[in-house]
């Protein structure tokens, strides 16, 4: 488990071991808002692990006040997209050697909220919390589609998904009224257990390889937005992401 908060990670590790009886649960420090942390984590994994069969890119920052990552990226884009982009890049050779393997990118229906602002990808000229979040989730879906095409024939499949509206602390940055509304309408939302099901489906369900690059919701294929299917814009996003991170990934 790659976690930013090691204290909370240890609590989760204990719960998992108690529930499953599996004591082989390992925690490693990873802060996706800091490329130094991402590189340090990847270096450890590449040294310690013989294979990575499933990578789940699940970190998320949602509609937070404007702030920047350690590297100067707008926080939502930096964590939700660029952090996962760099992590996947650094682990990709190991993942390829582990094939059959899967990369799962947890996106959101929020990807339909907006388009990409390629001329102001870091929201430096103007910032809207919802649009910035939607842009980061759109980037998730585009990344999964582009990566799937790149990995054709390697035995590595890639999927993106909408987990549903989940009762989690992802809502912590929202106005108190919104947080209250989420609790009131909790009957229409998902528990964390329910919210994890589509992620698990994409990670382990057999026979999905032919749908690599696809977008899923409620454990079934779903339709992504027209903007998410724009291959030309996706290629521009890929190039901008590489330039921002200082990597070469063709």
Automatic annotation (TrEMBL):
Top-level taxon of origin: Eukaryota
GO molecular function (one): oxidoreductase activity
Pfam families given in the database record: adh_short (PF00106)
Keyword set, alphabetical order: Oxidoreductase
Similarity remark: Belongs to the short-chain dehydrogenases/reductases (SDR) family.
Protein name: Retinol dehydrogenase 12 isoform X2
Organism expressing this protein natively: Gymnodraco acuticeps (Antarctic dragonfish)
């Amino acid at each position: 488990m790659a976690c930013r908060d090691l204290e909370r990670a240890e609590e989760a590790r204990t719960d998992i071991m108690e529930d499953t009886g599996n004591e082989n649960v390992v925690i490693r420090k990873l802060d996706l808002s800091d490329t130094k942390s991402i590189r340090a984590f990847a270096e450890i994994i590449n040294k310690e692990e013989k294979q990575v069969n499933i990578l789940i890119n699940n970190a998320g920052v949602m509609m937070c006040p404007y702030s920047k990552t350690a590297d100067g990226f707008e926080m939502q884009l930096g964590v939700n997209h660029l952090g996962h982009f760099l992590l996947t890049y650094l682990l990709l050779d190991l993942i390829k050697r582990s094939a059959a393997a899967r990369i799962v990118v947890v996106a959101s229906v929020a990807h339909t909220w907006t388009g990409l602002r390629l001329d102001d990808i870091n929201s430096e000229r103007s910032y809207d919390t919802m649009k910035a979040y939607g842009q980061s989730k759109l980037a998730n879906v585009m990344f999964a589609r582009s990566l799937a095409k790149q990995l054709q024939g390697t035995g590595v499949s890639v999927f993106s998904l909408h987990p549903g509206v989940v009762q989690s602390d992802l809502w912590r940055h929202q106005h108190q009224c919104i947080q209250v509304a989420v609790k009131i309408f909790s009957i229409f939302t998902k528990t964390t257990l329910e919210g994890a099901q589509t992620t698990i489906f994409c990670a382990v369900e057999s026979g999905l390889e032919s749908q690599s690059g696809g977008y899923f919701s409620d454990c079934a294929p779903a339709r992504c937005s027209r903007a998410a299917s724009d291959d030309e814009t996706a290629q521009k996003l890929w190039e901008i992401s590489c330039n921002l991170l200082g990597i070469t990934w063709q």
